[in-house]
Amino acid sequence: FRAQAAIVNYYHMD
Amino acid sequence: MFEARLVQSSILKKVLEAIKDLLNEATFDCSDSGIQLQAMDNSHVSLVSMNLRSDGFDKYRCDRNISMGMNLGSMTKILKCAANEDVVTMKAQDNADTVTFVFESPNQEKVSDYEMKLMNLDQEHLGIPETEYACVVRLPAGEFARICRDLSQFGESVVISCTKEGVKFSSAGDIGSANIKLAQTSNVDKEELAVTVEMQEPVTLTFASRYLNSFTKATSLSNVVQLSMSPDVPLVVEYRIGEIGHIRYYLAPKIED
Question: ipTM exceeding 0.85?
């Protein structure tokens, strides 16, 4: 099973 | 005062088409250098980043930076009122709570203006570092749309594998499985028909087909799409917007649970 990652796991708030 | 005039209103229509599947509303950040938009979809899985350079407009003026929060459903209704060959001008006063769209027919015999209320949206800007990707694939945008559509019949996920030979898209589900392999084009007469791969190391990543399909709503903007991938980071799907800018979609991969 593969879980969907969130984009905020990779890029952070400016 | 902000004013941006575009002879081809169809570009703005296509841009809207390309983002409204993922976003209900978005902030258009206008500055001297142009118009930028960055927003995550509701589920925070993907990110849309669009840039329209000021020098790509037929007339552009932005005295003070202005952020215009727009309901994209309302904007769609308004842009439907423009004919494809109309000239469009977006206008707003400094600190305004409305934006005005002016549509002029090519012979100037019909001029319409539509004022739209702006929204105050929470600004959540993500910093995206400059990245060297392990694989960069260019392929015809129509081909990519076709592949995403075809594979989404099989499963919720699409596996993209890139090697120096080419790129493979795969999906599997209840009815069976599907694989589509594209080899690098050996002889390229027309760049927009070519498949090219620039590879530092092979990459295999899994993505949700629903989002890939949403990205292909940008297909009418460009003949070519560029896919950039590295292990364990989001995929970047980029379409150029004529000579004026680009739209990039960032999609977080599916990961081993």
Answer: yes
